[in-house]
Design brief:
Layout (H helix, E strand, L loop, with lengths): L5 E5 L5 E6 L6 H9 L3 E7 L3 H14 L3 E7 L8 H13 L7 E6 L1 H13 L5 E6 L2 H7 L4 E6 L2 E8 L4 E5 L8 H18 L1 H6 L9 H18 L14 H10 L6 H18 L8 H10 L10 H7 L6 E2 L2 E9 L2 E8 L3 H10 L1
Parallel strand pairs: 2-9, 3-4, 3-5, 5-6, 6-9
Antiparallel strand pairs: 1-2, 7-8, 10-11, 11-12
The structure holds nicotinamide-adenine-dinucleotide, ligand LNCXM5UN and zinc ion.
Ligand LNCXM5UN binds next to strand 7 and strand 8.
Pfam family, one: DHQS_C
Organism: Oscillibacter valericigenes
EC number: 4.2.3.4
Length: 356
Amino acid sequence: MTDSIRTIPVRVQPSYDVSIGSGLLGRCGDYLAALLGQRKIAVLTDDTVAPLYLDTVTAALEGAGFTVCSHVFPAGEGHKDLSTLAELLEFLSSEHLTRTDCVAALGGGVVGDMAGFAAAVYLRGIRYVQLPTTLLAAVDSSVGGKTAVDLTAGKNLAGAFCQPAAVICDTDCLKTLPPDVFADGAAEAVKTGVLSDEGLFALFEDGTLTADPGEVIARCVAYKAGVVERDEKEQGERKLLNLGHTVGHAIEKCSGYAIPHGHAVAAGLAVIARSAETLGWTKEPIAGRIAACLAKNGLPTGTDFSAEALAEAALSDKKRAGGDITLVIPRKIGACQLRKVPVAELLPIIRAGLEA
Ligand SMILES: NC(=O)c1ccc[n+]([C@@H]2O[C@H](COP(=O)([O-])OP(=O)(O)OC[C@H]3O[C@@H](n4cnc5c(N)ncnc54)[C@H](O)[C@@H]3O)[C@@H](O)[C@H]2O)c1
Ligand SMILES: O=C(O)C(=O)C[C@@H](O)[C@H](O)[C@H](O)COP(=O)(O)O
Ligand SMILES: [Zn+2]
């Protein structure tokens, strides 16, 4: 696009760019027409995002020669399920989209995960683009090609690895986010800091993020892009991106998805940091610093669910293989490691994080 835009390539096969900047939704048509040709495009979004941004996106796409159709479904994790997926697939077929057409996921991580999954399976796969509108989607979910819906047994249990053809992140969308939804994104960005970048973590430590959000997004995306390039299908290194998620996903499930993903990941990160410190797995004391950072950003640092309930819910975790589960253990701010433990050890490990 133009000079004021940050562009980060994700070098998978085929490779794609993440473009980050102000005003990009209004200009997405020309960019996508150059990338995809002027085709039919189905914009899938939720009923909170639609009144804010659907007209802008539709006008930009039509202005660039696309034939546009759109479908709006109810917002929220509670709708990230098989019945909404079926609705999306029926919509795409009712609009007669063909394999040369395209889906655009306009919204947060819920829209991105579901629209991406619909694109991955409709006609056995058509191209899609991510237009993230939450901080969480910008720093994490729009990049890397994990798509999914939840099943009764737990989070993201049906899905596909399917990379987008492009990610266009308009930083102006962050201005309409309620503070608690902004905080969800801060949780994944703080996670990225704990994984790889103490400087990024420090940007969040006083709770008044003064840095350019484009810079925060770019740092998170650059790190994630590298991990995805080295381990697209999560055979090893990519499991690190699940820091805080074993307990986090369990909290989401135990709450009936009333606690949003970012808040649950924050609590899960605080718990595993305390477990790691208590069990002597960290290089230095970090749990207090991580909890303080999360709290400053309006995020929880613990949970009222019992260790037993969380351990039980975590049994459906995708990082479980047979009798073992792979945990992500923070060693210091900026470095973590994978640790495979027998499932039976999960309960005392979680207990150590809740009780420390
Ligand atoms: N695929 C991945 O790699 C990946 C990574 C992280 C999280 N996720 C998934 O992402 C989901 C969470 O995403 P999320 O936090 O974006 O939640 P979300 O998509 O539910 O969005 C949160 C709320 O904000 C609203 N919203 C979206 N954009 C807005 C805007 N610009 N202004 C005002 N309101 C807006 C939405 O309508 C919704 O009500 C979870 O399902 C999680 O599992 C996936
Ligand atoms: O991209 C990844 O890989 C991640 O793990 C990013 C996570 O933040 C995200 O929540 C992901 O959906 C969790 O993956 P899952 O395989 O445990 O469902
Ligand atoms: Zn996550």
